[in-house]
Structure formats: C-alpha cells, structure tokens
Amino acid sequence: MSTSDLADNPLLVTDGLPRFDRIKPEHIVPAIHKILADASARFDEIEKNVKPTWASAVESLDELNTPFQYGWSPVSHFLGVLNSPELRKAHEEVLPEVVTFSLRVSQSEPAYRALKELKEGPAWASLSGPQRRIVDHKLLDAELAGIGLTGEKRERFNAIAQEMSQVTTDFSNHVLDATKAFSITLTDPADVEGLPPSLLRLASQAHNSTLEGDQTLGTEEAGPWRFTLEFPSFGPFMQHSRRRDLREKMYRAYVTRAASGDWDNSPLITKILALRTEEAQLLGFSTFAELSLAKKMAPSVEMVGAMFKTLRDASWSAAHRELDEVRALAAESGAELGQGGQPLMNWDIAFWSERLREKKFQFTDEELRPYFPLESVLKGMFSLAERIFGIHVSPADGEAPVWHKDVRFFRVSNDSGKQIAAFYLDPYSRPENKRGGAWMDDCLGRKFLHGKLQLPVAHLICNSTPPAGGKPSLMTFREVETLFHEFGHGLQHMLTTVDYADAAGINGVEWDAVELPSQFMENWCYHRPTLLGLSAHYETGQPLPEDLFEKLCAARTFQAGLAMLRQLLFGMTDMALHGSYSPTAGESIFEVQRRISEQTSVLPLLPEDRSLCAFTHIFSGGYAAGYYSYKWAEVLSADAFSAFEEAGLENEQAIARIGRRFRDTVLAEGGSRHPMEVFKDFRGREPNPQALLRHNGLA
Ligand code: ZN
To answer: Within 13 Å of residue 113, how many CA atoms lie on the same side as its CB?
Structure first.
C-alpha cells in the first residue's frame, strides 16, 4: 500500500468525529499496521525516557491512545453495527497484534517503575485527588497482572494464566457442545398447542437447519419443530408447553448439561477454583474473592454477605407466598399436574407462573406498543433530562458522518447553552449486520490535553422495532426501558467534568457501580408524569390509559421474591466457592450449592442438579466472585432514585434540585473518586437496600 493510499485512509484521521461514512473493511489492515508501527516506535521512546511525572508516566500514554480511538474503536464498533465477512476477516487479521501491543503497554516494567516512583516521590504531593486515583488504579492493574512478582513466583503466575485460559475455554466449549447435543423434535401439531408463534418459528428454523441434501423443509405452521436447550428456545418452551412430560425432560436435561461423559465440567470447576486460589495467594490475598473485591466498590466479602442476608431475609416468605399462589392455580386447573395430584415440580413453575401472569395482568406487549412511537419516547426522555439535569438535547442529523441511514445524531448542551457532548443513536434492529441486545459504547472520551479539550461522544445502540407497513417505529415497554438504561450509561459518559481520559465518564468506575446511572434511569419509566408524558398513541396522540399504567406498575413486582432468591442462589454460591470453599474440608462444590439452596430455593433442587457445570458467568466469563454486582448496583440505583421519592416525585422543583446534585456527583465525577464517596456525596449516607426491597414489593 502506497503512502497516498494511507493519506486517504479514514481510519487515520485523528480529529473531529470519526469518518463513519467512509470506513470500509479494506482500510483496516493498512491503517492498523501503520498505527501499531507508529505507536510501537513511540512506546520504545517512552520506555527509554519515562520519568516519574504526571506528564511523562500518564499523559504520554494518553496521547498514544488517540490513534487507536479513531482507528481501532470504529472497527470494534462496526463489528456490532455493520458486521460483514470482510470486516470480520480484517478484524481477525490484526486483532492478535493489537492485543500484543496493549499487553506490552500494560505490563511495561519501565512504565510501572515510573508510576511507582511518582507515587513515592516529591511530585505526588502536587497531584490532585483524581490524578492520584488514576495512578493508584494503574499500579493496582499492573500488580494484579503479576508485575510485582519475580523469579519462580512470576513463572508460576504466568503458567497459571496460560492454564486458566485453556481450562475456561474448555469449560465454555463443553457447555456449548452439551447444549447443542440435546433437542426434542415434535411433529404432531397437538404436541405444540399453546406455544407462541415466535417460538414455533424458531423451532421450525432449528429443525430445517439440521436437514441435508434434498430433504423437504418443514414450516412453522405444520412442523416439524425442534426445541433445544438454548435459552430463546428453552425459556419459552418451559413457560408455554402443555406437555408436562416434555417439560420434565427438557428441565432435567438443562440442569445436567456438561455434567457427565466427555463434557463433564466438574473436574474443570475444581481445577479453576484451585488455580484462582493459588493466583490470589501469589498476589498476597488469602482468597480469590478478596482479589476480586480489590478492584470493586464493595468494601469486603463480609459487606457483600450482609447485603445477601438482608435481601434474602426480606424475600423468603414472599417467595413462599408467590409459590403458593402458583400451586393454587395449578391445583385449580387440575388435570395438568397429572394423575394422583402430584406435587408441583421444578418444571411446572415457569408454566404456571405464566398462566398466573396472564390471569392477573391481562395485557400484552402488543397492546402497549401503539403508545410508544420512538419519536415521542425520545422527546419525553430528553424533556426528563432537561427537567432533572438541566441539559438540552437537540437533534443534529446531517451534521455528523453516520454508518447507516437510520442512525441519528444529537448534541447535548448545558444550562448556559454551551455544547458539552454529543451522541449517536442507532435505534432499530437490523438482523443482517447488527448484533442483538443493546449497549452504550464510548466513541470519543472527554480529555483535556495540551490546551485542547476533546468533548465526549457516545454510541447508544438499541434493537427496537423498525418502522413497517406505514407505521412509525412502535416500541414495546421493555424497549423503552432499555433505551432509558443505555441513555443512563450515556449520560455518565457525556456529563463528566473530568479532564483525564482514565477517569472521565465511565472510565475508572468500579464495575459493581457501573450500572448505577443506567438502572437509575430505568426507574423513571414507572414515574407517572414521565411515562404518560412520553406516550402518545401513534394514531390518536392519546397518552397511555391510566388502567394500563396501573397494570404495568403491578406487573413490575410480580414474583419479585422468587426472582430475587434465584439471583441470590447464584451470587451466594459464587461467593462461597471463591471465598470460603476448601476442597479438603469434606464438602463438594455441589454440596456447597445445595447448602445455599436450602436458604434460597423455595422448591428444593433436584438431587441430580448439576447446574454449576453450566455456570459460564463465573467459570468462563468475567463474573467470578462478582456475580453479586448485579444486586449491588441495583441497591445503589434504587437508593439513588429513592432520594427523589422522598422529596416527592410530583414536586418538579425538588426533582430539579436533587437531579442537579445527581448530575454533579454521580454523573460528573464518574471514575475520578471512589464510588462510595461519590454516592455518599449524593445521598448523604451509605447505600441502603430498603429502597430496592420497597420497589420490589418486598419491604
Ligand atoms: Zn448496563
């Protein structure tokens, strides 16, 4: 590739907004090679000359990052929103080199020594609180990556890391293989009675995908239908299948996945736990749980345990009542439970819960949709942000390069009219090239370097229903909540006032605190004036009828006790295995889970339950001794919202006052201070789980 081609490469532009309209897969390899070559040369220089000063040990690395923000972040972004085989191929080709370079930077001994000297030397006194926190975080990251170890200990640490990556990969492959190996194929329409059309479509596709050669394709109306243990199939099947015997078969298969034969994960779990304990001890911690918490907001294993206990005690009797209600409905309906009045079993709960939900609330997603056209929802959400945070969001479509015609662009200004941020919104589902789910991503982060301020720009990605058949995009209530959630992450990214990249926005926020602003925003979807204000029937303009709003609120707490206990079983088992389990103490991992289930399952686990063998979150994902974070962050967000409730949700002045305080603490300070201090500044005290329990109807 010649220099003139490089001069034209949009991934090498490093000012303004990324040139999303011009980036093509063929730009990736040459651009990344150029960026890596420049960065490596520059990093050689830095390593040679790095000094124990802020400018040298921190800022010079920030500068190194700019070309990656413009050249590499768009590639990762496009994998999610504009995927194609060409893009994947180019990404795969350069990924290992990018990873190698980033490891080199994060494990650099000279950079680490300079930071360490900075902390211990005279310059430390002149650093601000946020600067010190950034240095401390960098030191901790390097130390947890084993940089402080020498000799045999270092070798052993690296060997553990290698082995862990192998064992955890095997673990997740076993789960995948075992999940794939089981299915039930049905051919008689009587057997699929009651199953929703979306599940039948999925099951028909699943069957057709197994066909070879000239075998005749089935249809979703006439079958055959193939049901699998993947959640989009398993979940709805358990909720809707009237064949109790098949539910039992599916359920038993689900909780014994990857627990026997070639795919048996039990020995891998033992191995993973032993390796993690050893790793923690090499780094000076007594357990892996302590190591995990070293980088989180939760101050100690005991505090996490205390939260578990409060939530568990409040949910226990409610969950029993909820189960009794399910049992009563099942008994009333008689025959379904089989001859001889068999007791309600694990495979009956989802089914009868669904029937109970239908009976109690009698509304469907489809009934609500017409009230939530995207445009009204956005208007209402921006008006809420204006009222509580004093910011103004204005559409600026056409002022920024975009990757798809449906992508919107917005500018955000503060109460004195000054622009402080911008964001892209990619609202609609686009199965052909866009990943499912929803997320917020950082496009550009706020930083002030060499007298120049870079404003934050966010990506908000949703998968809402696109406009069709002359109708605008009509959202389900869940899609509205999701939009609020991602907007909450986006607000923390955009309303930051921190000038250092490593602590601006969501950067540097402990991961058990990251969901605070996002879940906080979701609460407003149940705020009457907000929800009625953003709803407008797409034909009549009428707001959501009062009775539907009431039902929505009532449905929010449906089976909250059972749902809470289910999460606590996962979280407490995770913490016990990583915090106090010892393979020589005479209790197996399954006995640990069973002991915890006695306090958290209102219906006992089956004797053969081996669901731990498929617990990928903690054995092959990033949630080891961290599954509690889901609940921890919910406690924070509910408690933050309760500050508004205490002042009166109908009191606009009070909402505005507290909203500004939330903006100036949680949203503005982000990762520049410890999240507990930030929270206390906002709330005036430490977090309290009572608000979460109250919102769940469990107080
Ligand atoms: Zn989130």
So the answer is: 9
Segments of the chain assigned to CATH 1.10.1370.40: 370-556+631-695
How far apart are the CA of 521 and the centre of ligand 1, in A?
11
- DSSP state at residue 223: B
Q: Does domain 262-361+560-627 have CATH number 1.20.1250.20?
A: no
Q: Is the pLDDT of residue 586 over 50?
A: yes
- The listed range with the strongest mean pLDDT (199-203, 354-358, 489-493) is 489-493
CA distances, 573 to each of 167, 578, 611 (Å):
20, 9, 11
Measured between alpha carbons, how far is 60 from 115 in angstroms, rounded to an integer?
A: 12
SS3 453: strand
**Each residue's pLDDT tens digit, 19-72:** 999 999 999 999 999 999 999 999 999 999 999 999 999 999 999 999 999 999
Per-residue pLDDT of 617-676, as tens digits, reads: 999 988 999 999 999 999 999 999 999 999 999 999 999 999 999 999 999 999 999 999
Neighbour tally for 228: CB within 10 Å: 21
Residue 377 CA to ligand 1 center (angstroms) comes to 19
If one counts every other C-beta atom within 10 angstroms of the C-beta of residue 31, the result is 26
- Separation of CA 604 from chain center: 29
Which candidate, 127, 170, 135, 601, places its Cα nearest to that of 349?
Answer: 601
> Which of helix, strand or coil describes residue 279?
helix
Confidence of residue 220 (pLDDT cuts 50, 70, 90): confident
HSE, side-chain direction, 13 A CA sphere, residue 124: 13
pLDDT tens digits along 509-547: 999 999 999 999 999 999 999 999 999 999 999 999 999
Q: What is the fold, at CATH topology level, of the domain defined by 370-556+631-695?
A: Neurolysin; domain 3 (1.10.1370)
The superfamily in CATH containing domain 3-148 is: Endopeptidase. Chain P; domain 1 (1.20.1050.40)
Distances (CA, A) of 587 to 112, 265, 581: 42, 18, 8
Distance CA 575, CA 305 (A): 8
Residue 486 known to be catalytic: yes
Q: Among residues 322, 486, 510, 669, which one is catalytic?
A: 486
For residue 620, how far is its CA from the centre of ligand 1 (angstroms)? 20
> What is the reported pLDDT for 339?
46
CA–centroid distance, residue 74 to ligand 1 (Å): 20
Question: How far is CA 685 from each of CA 68, 309, 311, 334, rounded to the nearest angstrom?
Answer: 40, 20, 19, 52
Cβ atoms 495, 506 nearer than 8 A: no
Ligand 1 center from residue 163 Cα (angstroms): 31
**Model pTM?**
0.92
